């Protein structure tokens, strides 16, 4: 899986509300709890091999799908 990083360049003040920006930037919690090191773990910008998704049984019901995808690629689901 290849993931985009929304914060790799300059981010305009109006582009992201401060509460969401701070929460997403606190990715150390994701790294610590999930064992997946990413700069932007909640990005929706992803490219994946189709064979990873063919037999995937989606468990997420909301925005937590990004974390589930991270685990899927790591072979944990």
Care to describe what's here?
Helix content is 36%, strand content 5%. The protein has helices spanning 18-25, 28-34, 50-53, 65-73; strands at residues 2-3, 46-47. It has a two-stranded antiparallel ribbon with strand order 1-2. The chain is globular. The mean pLDDT is 75.
Derived from helix and strand composition plus strand pairing, the structural class reads mainly alpha
Percentage of β-strand residues: 5-15%
Rg, alpha carbons? 13 Å
Oligomer: single chain
Q: What is the topology, as strand order, of the major beta sheet?
A: 1-2
The gist of it:
This protein has 77 residues and is mainly α. It has four helices and two strands; from the N terminus they run βααβαα.
Which SSEs are present, and which pair or pack?
Layout: E1 2-3, H1 18-25, H2 28-34, E2 46-47, H3 50-53, H4 65-73
Antiparallel strand pairs: 1-2
């Amino acid at each position: 899986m290849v993931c985009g990083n929304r914060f790799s360049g300059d981010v305009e003040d109006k582009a992201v509300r401060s509460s969401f920006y701070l929460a997403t930037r606190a990715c150390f919690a994701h790294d610590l709890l999930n064992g997946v090191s990413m700069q932007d773990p909640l990005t929706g910008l992803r490219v994946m091999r189709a064979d990873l998704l063919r037999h995937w049984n989606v468990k997420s019901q909301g925005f937590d799908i990004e974390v589930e995808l991270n685990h899927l690629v790591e072979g944990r689901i």
